[in-house]
Amino acid sequence: MKARMMIAGLAAALMLAGCSNMSSFSNPFEQPSITETYISQFRDVPIPAPMSTIPSETLVTVGPDGSKFGLESFSGRVDGTSLANVMMQNMARQGWQLRGSSVGVRSVQLYEKSPHYAAIFYREGVVNTSMDVWVVNGVNVDILSLVPEVHNSVNSGMSSYSGSSYSGSSTSPYSDMSSGQVTKLSQ
């Protein structure tokens, strides 16, 4: 009887010692921290640490001034909504202005940091969440002011086109450009 008590006491002590080491096992369902970030291809777009670059889906080019543009794709085992919220905070810290967003199973956020734009697309999967980061150079507004001039010069060049199969005016393939109406092509 005394021997049984000693064995039971020893077994209990070993079980308690074994349970104290259980904290070294990680919970497979626990979400990793997404507050730690790193800088990947785009120098002012912080990426949460659990997200890994997918090189086969990434295409980045370097502009004349050394800035990078293009697409960088990431994947990680994180909650999509939490990822979108953390990215919104991180982008704001880097000076990006949120210009629009749509949230759901597939979400998008659009940012502006003059003269650049960034669009971030999120796709939640069963296990992983994918994130595509697009960074593009902004549109030069001065170029937009030239559009009417280019449009008019193209139209004046078209008016000298002979053998026109267009119906309507013989001097221009288009009817009244100021009204915005276009004459249909004849068959």
Q: Please give the CATH architecture of the domain at 37-140.
A: 2-Layer Sandwich
Share of helical residues? 25-40%
Please give the alpha-carbon distance between the first and last residues: 108 Å
Oligomer: single chain
Q: What structural class do helix, strand and pairing data support?
A: alpha+beta
CATH class wording of the domain at 37-140: Alpha Beta
Shape: elongated
Strand and helix layout:
Layout (H helix, E strand, L loop, with lengths): L1 H19 L16 E3 L6 E3 L3 E2 L5 E4 L5 E9 L3 H14 L3 E6 L3 E8 L2 E9 L4 E9 L3 H5 L1 H13 L28
Antiparallel strand pairs: 1-2, 3-5, 4-5, 5-9, 6-7, 7-8, 8-9
How would you sum up this structure, described in words?
The protein has 187 residues and is α+β, with helices and mostly antiparallel strands. The chain has a domain at 37-140: TATA-Binding Protein, CATH 3.30.310. The chain has four helices and nine strands. The strands form two sheets. Strands 3, 4, 5, 6, 7, 8 and 9 form a seven-stranded antiparallel sheet that branches. Strands 1-2 form a two-stranded antiparallel ribbon. The protein is elongated and about 105 Å long.
